[in-house]
Design a protein that fits this description.
The protein is α/β, with parallel strands linked by helices and about 375 residues long. It is built from eleven helices and 14 strands. The protein has two domains: about 240 residues, Vaccinia Virus protein VP39 (Rossmann fold), CATH 3.40.50.150; about 120 residues, no CATH class. The chain binds S-adenosylmethionine.
Length: about 375
């Protein structure tokens, strides 16, 4: 049994702990953690709760929600917007979140290119004609590597208090395991997928024969679609309306990378400068002279730096020094610090990103500060 559901207790006849919807979302999250899709579309996303969870999965770069009801999507879509912390510390990955108003029974070019498509408690809301179109749209047109479909298992219904015909008045049908599996197997066969069945919401002890409360089919595409066939499927016209779009700040965007590098370079240089001045002050005490008058070279000691900065080998040519009241901190020294190194990748990139952003020596090889200058 999946460890996420081991702690589930069936408390009475209608309650699940954690709640059933959370178990469904957790199932999707685990799948994302396992297969690391970059582009995920949630069909029938309603109030975007699953999307809000998935935006924290660091593998995802494109997240889209589609629903026929614009007002339900708009209720909480602001939760999909970047937070102040996303601007203060932009992530390495890029992330774009989009919400589209439209029906899963219609094709739109914005549906193309996804790795994973989730349809959580959607199909039972579709009219007969929509359900007929649905496989062609999802498996034929979108054709992602994986599709997850969840739907109520009607065999469980007698264990749910207050359920007469269906669990929800908007449901157009509820299937037994055999009905769902027959539909899923036929759909998979027709569009070149394999499908495995599982579920969430365990039945109480002694009632295992009814199966999970929510039944789930995980479809995996057998053969990758060629780009030519994907192109030929592309409809000319967009039918969906985009109701929300958020582009998260990312270090892949040069503007945010430059800010992050300048911040890190300034921070690192300030620490080196402070260590150098402390060193000079201690020499001054020892020799009783003016520290700023001495042209002092300085090899910063590793223990001068906060531990998380870490430090690579500093060569002799990378020594920082004071000349008059100016402190020179070679860019090469700054580049040797892992955080700067990781952000820039190459020394050339570092030079390019800091050019015009921090004060450099005339040959551009060192960051310069006045010894009087306060830390900034
Ligand atoms: N997937 C969400 C979840 O599990 O929390 C919400 C499921 S809700 C029960 C079903 C959603 O499907 C509703 O938001 C409804 O508006 C949407 N829906 C129904 N028919 C649709 C269609 N033809 N195309 C797109 N969405 C549809």
């Amino acid at each position: 049994m999946d460890k996420n559901f081991q702690e589930e207790k069936f408390t009475g006849i209608t309650k699940f702990t954690p709640p059933l919807y959370e178990q469904r979302y957790q199932f999707v999250k685990d799948l994302v953690g396992k297969y690391k899709p970059k582009k995920v579309a949630d069909l029938g996303c309603a109030d975007c709760r699953l999307l809000c969870m998935l935006k924290f999965c660091s593998c995802i770069e494109v997240l889209a929600g589609i629903d026929i009801c614009a007002s339900v999507m708009k209720q909480k879509m602001h939760r999909l917007s970047p937070l102040p912390v996303d601007y203060l510390q932009p992530a390495e990955r890029s992330l774009t979140v989009t919400l589209h108003h439209g029906s899963v029974a219609q094709k739109d070019p914005c549906m193309l290119g996804f790795d994973l498509v989730t349809c959580i408690e959607l199909i039972e809301h579709l009219e007969e004609w929509e359900l007929k179109k649905f496989p062609e749209v999802v498996f034929g047109f979108m054709a992602p590597s994986r599709v997850v479909i969840s739907t109520p298992n009607s065999e469980f219904n007698p264990l749910l208090r207050g359920v007469r015909l269906f669990r929800n008045p908007d449901h157009k049908f509820e299937w037994t395991r055999l009905q769902f599996q027959s539909w899923a197997l036929e759909t998979a066969r027709r569009y070149g997928y394999s499908v495995e069945f599982t579920g969430v919401g365990h039945p109480p002890r002694g009632m295992e024969n009814v199966g999970f409360c929510t039944q789930i089919g995980v479809f995996v595409k057998k053969y990758p679609l060629t780009s030519a066939s994907a192109q030929s499927e592309k409809p000319a016209e967009a039918v969906y309306k985009t109701v929300f779009k958020a582009v998260y700040p990312s270090l892949k965007d040069e503007k945010y990378l430059r800010n992050a590098v300048v911040r890190e370079v300034t921070f690192t240089a300030q620490i080196i400068k402070q260590s150098l001045l402390n060193h000079l002050m201690s020499e001054h005490k020892e020799y009783n002279d003016d520290p700023t008058e001495r042209k002092s070279k300085f090899q910063p000691a590793v223990n001068c730096f906060s531990e998380d900065l870490g430090k690579l080998v500093v060569e002799k040519s990378m020594e920082s020094f004071v000349n008059g009241n100016v402190v020179y901190i070679p860019l090469a020294t700054i580049f040797s610090f892992p955080r700067v190194n990781r952000l820039c990748g190459t020394f050339e990139k570092l030079r390019k990103l800091v050019a015009g952003q921090v004060t450099l020596s005339s040959d551009g090889s060192a960051v310069v500060f006045s010894t009087d200058q306060e830390d900034n």
